[in-house]
Amino acid sequence: MPMNKQLLGGISRDEFLRDYWQKQPLLVRNAIPEFTGLIDPAALFELAGNEDVEARLVRQKTKGWDLQHGPFDESDFKAKRGGAVWTLLVQELNHYLPSGEALLQQFDFIPHARLDDLMVSYAVPGGGVGPHFDSYDVFLLQGHGHRRWQISAQDDLTLIDGAPLRILQNFEAEQEWVLGPGDMLYLPPRYAHDGVALDECMTYSIGFRAPTTQEIATQFLVYMQDKIELEGRYQDPDLALQVHPAEIGAAMVDQMAAMIAQVQWGRADVADFLGRYLTEPKPHVYFQPPQRALGFEKFAAQANKKGVRLAPQSRMLFHADQYYLNGEPVTLAGCRDALQALADTRQINTSMADDVLMEWLYDAYVDGYLIIGG
Ligand code: SIN
Ligand code: CO
Description:
This protein folds into 2 domains: 13-208, Jelly Rolls (Sandwich), CATH 2.60.120.650; 296-372, Malonyl-Coenzyme A Acyl Carrier Protein, domain 2. Helices cover 28% and strands 22% of the residues. It is built from 11 helices and 17 strands. The protein has helices spanning 13-19, 41-47, 74-81, 93-96, 98-105, 213-227, 250-260, 267-279, 296-306, 336-345, 355-366, and strands at 26-28, 55-60, 65-69, 85-90, 115-123, 138-142, 147-152, 175-179, 184-187, 192-197, 201-208, 308-310, 316-319, 322-325, 328-329, 347-348, 370-372. The strands form 4 sheets. The chain has an 8-stranded antiparallel β-sheet. A hairpin with a 2-residue loop joins strand 14 (322-325) and strand 15 (328-329). It is globular and about 80 Å long. Bound molecules: succinic acid (SIN) and cobalt (II) ion (CO).
């Protein structure tokens, strides 16, 4: 997709990264000209009825907030239409709509490893999720309707105790704008904000991921646990008589410490872990293998005609020469150009593919990781 120069309001991607990314908000009027959204409310409500879809319904009551998790049926929305102010949030729209996936690709000046998903919110007039902050960067792109955003660089990020949603106790707006279709607001992490629908409106959130140190270290240890193969066993031929048989003696601690110190890792282990971890599908994500898979020859003929693309749920990344797809390393020698193009652009023309690559693509197709069509 050609770069839309208006997406960042006329500044270059380098300038955006230097001056705004993780630093300060950026309001862009008409970031996507003629954008009115990717899905209409009725189709969104239907999507929110699917049990694999992560959907939340937030209701603002006279006293406090109410949060429900999907799946929802039509009646959930109808009942709420009569009176209470509510908003419906649906995650991973990019998995369900090709236009959602295409929208995310406009943001690929940020590495894919940082990308999380495309969320959409539908709100009745007055609806919103309250003043809060997020731990992640977000681009808030207005679809149909209008939303008033108030934002604040405040340091006080104390949340209301016991609320089902993360709501700031003391929000003091410093700036505000009304965003209409195609307008966009970028917010760095931990920037307080509050978006209120002025009319029936939908807002698209392009969200990023940034794991905490605790999360990444814990997951790395899980990875190491599967990987280590250590020799030896505890031994004590020089065992001395202990005064207290219940005591864990110093010699035992020393020897065990030396055993544990054999667990070692280097940068290559970290890179391999990241390739797997960052491409691992989220637990609720399912792939849909083709119902009646084509045989290899037919697949190859179709692929050559139409190209292939990653399934919308697929995540593919690489480090040095090693590629990863959906949590697994790709064991394919060579084929670097094709794999790189597939990882970067999510699609490739297979006319130059050799048999080895075509067979790998076929396996990915049978698993539902890849689909035919450019
Ligand atoms: C919304 O779209 O209503 C909420 C998005 C956000 O504040 O992060
Ligand atoms: Co937010």
